[in-house]
């Protein structure tokens, strides 16, 4: 068969459902092969957005999402998405085209060494130089993308190779089970936890990757040990649990850090190197148990005394089976701190001021989102407010990027989430700056007939950098801009446009949008004037008084 057909069949054998992207003339054989495939092509308006969608698909399913571009500028547009997937541990395969490699009549027109460019951004990158290599290259790309730690992979398919004919057989996906931790490390973990006076559990990004929620929930229910999360660990455990101490949205000196200071043992579940731990190890204090698929990379602030290495869910289940809760554990101080934090999180949730106050915004969205509803956050200062103030009830219902922390991913991620879970409520929450970086994907959402809400937080500036600028004592300079009329902008794409004109209107408008089919864009003027006072000063001052 033609190599392009074999390539598509290899993707089908991997269970690929969608390819996100923009084909070019170098991909036309592949595009033709997709025509009769079970795989659905989702045409996007920018390759970067296609990469964000593929990465989000991988994040939600554990299976590598696939995106497609042509050579040259199409492939270079995938760079940010490659870094997004690689740093965020999201399995993704990028497929790019290329001019013929055995003969060329166009010199270096559009020629960039994409394989070399992708080396520092991927787990593996290859140019396919023979049709016979397709089955092994595709299988290996998926194996690498999906294995711990997941990430981005890349294959370049030149147009002359795509046109070759071959009888190379497919390589079927192999079955494997992740190894379990050894008996001695589990026993040592049990002893360390039982001997501690105030153990705490930290849930990191790895906990969200492989559905560890059930085992970890049982572990917490049996032991009663309080827990906290990183930003990308939100939702692994229902955060309505009375033992939830909060999310480490700020680097230091939040109420949560006062609780961490009391702990003599941190049980770190699913630590990911991209998120710095919200505690610093000084010598051997606190003691740390590293429960993960891979051993810990040692650095000055993180050098755990014990690694329980293997499938996380299995490790937690085995520790839970052997452990006996101890009356000597003392969580009184920890729960005292939690009470102060919970009270602080209630402040401002009913504030009537307009533009809308961040605490009111977060509280109202939590009221209207169902338990399995998904919010996708673009990158901005609101990410801190949502990480800290928005309780997640299920795994992967708060999709934020605390790895590359790129702008422009909020809307594409929401499109991917709605594609994977069409029956669930999905809302993209974007700053006006991040939204405009991939706003053209409104057309994609409308064309796909998605029921989707995009919330635009309008402050006419790069608010995150303004917050940092003020905190560092610099003058207010260089970060303000103008915006289009977002209501008319949405309507020009065939979406519904709405503008919030009072704080009390927000909940009502969102509820109505969820009840009305189609793509809805809601412009929400936001008041960030208190960011510096609350996040940089008030929290630190009040937490030190506890």
Automatic annotation (TrEMBL):
Domain Thiamine pyrophosphate enzyme central intervals: 187-318
Domain Thiamine pyrophosphate enzyme TPP-binding residue range list: 378-524
A UniProt-annotated Pfam family: TPP_enzyme_C
Keywords, ordered alphabetically: Thiamine pyrophosphate
GO MF term (any one): magnesium ion binding
Any one GO biological process: L-valine biosynthetic process
Listed SUPFAM superfamilies: DHS-like NAD/FAD-binding domain, Thiamin diphosphate-binding fold (THDP-binding)
GO cellular component assignments: acetolactate synthase complex
InterPro entries xref list: DHS-like_NAD/FAD-binding_dom, THDP-binding, Thiamin_PyroP_enz_cen_dom, Thiamin_PyroP_enz_TPP-bd_dom, TPP-bd_CS, TPP_enz, TPP_enzyme_TPP-bd
CDD domains: TPP_PYR_POX_like
The Thiamine pyrophosphate enzyme N-terminal TPP-binding domain, residue ranges: 1-116
Family: Belongs to the TPP enzyme family.
Protein name (Swiss-Prot/TrEMBL): Acetolactate synthase large subunit
Organism this protein belongs to: Candidatus Thiopontia autotrophica
């Amino acid at each position: 068969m033609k190599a392009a057909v074999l390539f598509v069949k290899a993707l089908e054998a991997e269970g690929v459902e969608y390819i996100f992207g923009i084909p070019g003339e170098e991909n036309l054989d592949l595009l033709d092969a997709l025509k009769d495939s079970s795989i659905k092509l989702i045409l996007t308006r920018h390759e970067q957005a296609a990469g964000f969608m593929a990465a989000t698909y991988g994040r939600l399913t554990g299976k590598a999402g696939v995106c497609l571009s042509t050579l040259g500028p199409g492939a270079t547009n995938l760079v940010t998405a490659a870094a997004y997937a690689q740093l965020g541990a999201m399995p993704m395969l990028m497929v790019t085209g290329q001019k013929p490699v055995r003969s060329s009549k166009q010199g270096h027109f559009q020629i960039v060494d994409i394989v070399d460019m992708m080396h520092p951004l991927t787990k593996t990158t290859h140019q396919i130089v023979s049709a016979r290599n397709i089955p092994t290259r595709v299988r290996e790309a998926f194996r690498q993308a999906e294995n711990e730690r997941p990430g981005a992979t890349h294959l370049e398919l030149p147009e002359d190779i795509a046109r070759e004919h071959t009888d190379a057989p497919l390589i079927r996906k192999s079955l494997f089970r992740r190894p379990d931790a050894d008996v001695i490390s589990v026993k040592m973990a049990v002893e360390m936890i039982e001997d501690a006076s105030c153990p705490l559990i930290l849930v990191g990004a790895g906990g969200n990757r492989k559905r560890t929620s059930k085992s970890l929930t049982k572990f917490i229910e049996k032991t009663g040990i309080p827990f906290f999360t990183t930003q990308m660990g939100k939702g692994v455990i229902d955060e309505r649990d009375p033992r939830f101490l909060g999310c480490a949205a700020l680097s230091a000196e939040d109420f949560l850090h006062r609780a961490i200071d009391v702990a003599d043992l941190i049980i770190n579940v699913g630590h990911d190197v991209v998120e710095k731990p919200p505690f610093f190890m000084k010598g051997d204090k606190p003691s740390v148990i590293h429960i993960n698929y891979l051993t810990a990379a040692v650095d000055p602030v993180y050098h755990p005394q014990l690694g329980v290495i293997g499938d996380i869910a299995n490790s937690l289940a085995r520790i839970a089976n052997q452990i006996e809760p101890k009356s000597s554990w003392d969580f009184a101080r920890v729960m005292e701190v939690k009470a102060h934090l919970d009270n602080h999180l209630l402040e401002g949730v009913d504030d009537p001021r307009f533009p809308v106050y961040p605490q009111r915004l977060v509280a109202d969205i939590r009221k209207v989102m169902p338990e399995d509803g998904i919010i996708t956050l673009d990158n901005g200062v609101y990410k801190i407010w949502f990480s800290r103030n928005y309780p997640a009830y299920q795994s992967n219902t708060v999709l934020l990027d605390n790895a590359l922390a790129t702008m422009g991913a909020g809307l594409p991620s929401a499109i991917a989430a709605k594609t994977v879970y069409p029956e669930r409520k999905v809302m993209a929450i974007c700053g006006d700056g991040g939204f405009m970086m991939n706003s053209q994907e409104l057309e994609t959402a409308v064309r796909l007939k998605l029921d989707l809400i995009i919330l635009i937080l309008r402050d006419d500036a790069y608010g995150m950098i303004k917050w940092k600028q003020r905190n560092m004592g610099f003058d207010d300079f260089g970060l303000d801009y103008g915006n289009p009329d977002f209501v008319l902008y949405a309507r020009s794409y065939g979406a519904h446009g709405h503008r919030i004109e009072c704080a009390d209107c927000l909940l009502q408008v969102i509820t109505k949008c969820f009840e009305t089919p189609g793509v809805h864009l809601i412009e929400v003027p936001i008041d960030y004037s208190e960011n510096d006072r609350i996040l940089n000063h008030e929290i630190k001052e009040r937490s030190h008084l506890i």
